[in-house]
Design a protein that fits this description.
By secondary structure, this protein is of the alpha/beta class. 40% of the residues lie in helices and 20% in strands.
Length: 177
């Protein structure tokens, strides 16, 4: 009995080391989403007050592939990725919808007035409820939704030119099939 009590912590330690060793080469930026290949959550987001683009809902994601970008005016990485979103829109013509995460309308308007507005629709998610339903960990995050309304891709963190070329555009092409 004493041997068992002595061996239990040792076995537990060996098990933990095995778990950590098996994930040591895992990409730390990879955050899996349980929503991949599932329909986008049911939601309705009103437009950001004072903006000349509409809000959107689940139904408006159907029909053609859409890139959904979660952003906020107070998010420094969002500011960094914004020119890349404008370039993506210009290059591909993709529908680009924004979820304005936990932001005051006047701040969102100022952000887009300063940097430009690449979005076809922007929903105000002031209480973060929709972001939570989408599994958003933080801003920015970007999703590809196929024409049937299923989420087919998720990118956590700011987009880079490399990520757009190697991940996002191929995901969009796949969503168009």
């Amino acid at each position: 009995m004493k041997k068992l009590l002595f061996a239990a912590p040792l076995l537990l330690l060996v098990g933990l080391i095995a778990v950590f060793a098996s994930t040591i080469n895992r990409d730390p930026s990879l955050v899996r989403s349980v929503l991949i290949d599932k329909p986008a959550p049911e939601f309705t987001l009103a437009a950001v007050e004072g903006m000349d683009v509409p809000g959107f809902d689940t139904a408006s994601l159907k029909g053609e592939p859409t890139v959904v970008n979660v952003f906020a005016s107070w998010c420094i990485p969002c500011r960094d990725e914004h020119p890349l979103l404008e370039a993506l829109k210009a290059k591909t013509g993709v529908r680009l919808f924004g979820i304005n995460h936990s932001d005051a309308p006047e701040n969102a308007r100022a952000f887009l007035a300063e940097l430009g507005n690449p979005y076809d629709a922007i929903g105000a998610d002031r209480d973060r409820r929709v972001s939570i339903d989408w599994g958003v960990y933080g801003v920015p995050e970007t999703f590809v939704v196929d024409g049937s309304g299923k989420i087919s891709f998720k990118h956590v963190g700011p987009l880079t030119a490399e990520a757009i070329e190697s991940e996002l555009i191929p995901a969009l092409e796949k969503a168009r099939l």
